[in-house]
Hints:
By secondary structure, the protein is mainly β. The chain is built from no helices and 14 strands. It has strands spanning about 15-20, 30-40, 45, 45-50, 55-65, 70-75, 90-100, 105-115, 130-140, 140-155, 160-180, 180-190, 200-210, 215. Strand 7 and strand 8 (about 105-115) form a beta hairpin. It is globular, with a radius of gyration of 17 Å.
Amino acid sequence: xxxxxxxxxxxxxxxxxxxxxxxxxxxxxxxxxxxxxxxxxxxxxxxxxxxxxxxxxxxxxxxxxxxxxxxxxxxxxxxxxxxxxxxxxxxxxxxxxxxxxxxxxxxxxxxxxxxxxxxxxxxxxxxxxxxxxxxxxxxxxxxxxxxxxxxxxxxxxxxxxxxxxxxxxxxxxxxxxxxxxxxxxxxxxxxxxxxxxxxxxxxxxxxxxxxxxxxxx
Length: 217
């Protein structure tokens, strides 16, 4: 859920290569999953978070047999431009917890809460925020989601927007190319309460990436 004041993306092309996966021994009550990856562009809801540059990403999560899960995800950011998070943060850390379950052989649902942290966002504004997301998945290939945040802050070309509600819709589909690589197409819409059209809008994306990108233990 990043600022759409970043360079509009539509469609964007990017490539991702998993450099190394780290799996852990499965416990009787659940399993661990982890990933280390490199991508030529960090794209979210059709908008580049790295201004078209390479990002290094990683994650670690634990999922219980009940469907409850929790973990952390991190990515490098572009800190060379003036916009969100004001050109100062070079790292994003997401802490998340949620619940997912299968409805049938083809359909599953997922709900999660995520806290977005920017350790180096400086003194201009506090860009950390919380997001609540629900998703419907078809065969783990098509993902449709709606996300709401009560406290988004960002910098737009019209100035600083602080602690605004945000609503986002997103749909993505993947076509596996290799065991570790998939083609992904998606489109996203984001509306920020009281923000100008420059901070709210629609973006699309076409890129190569490992969908989910985890090695499970």
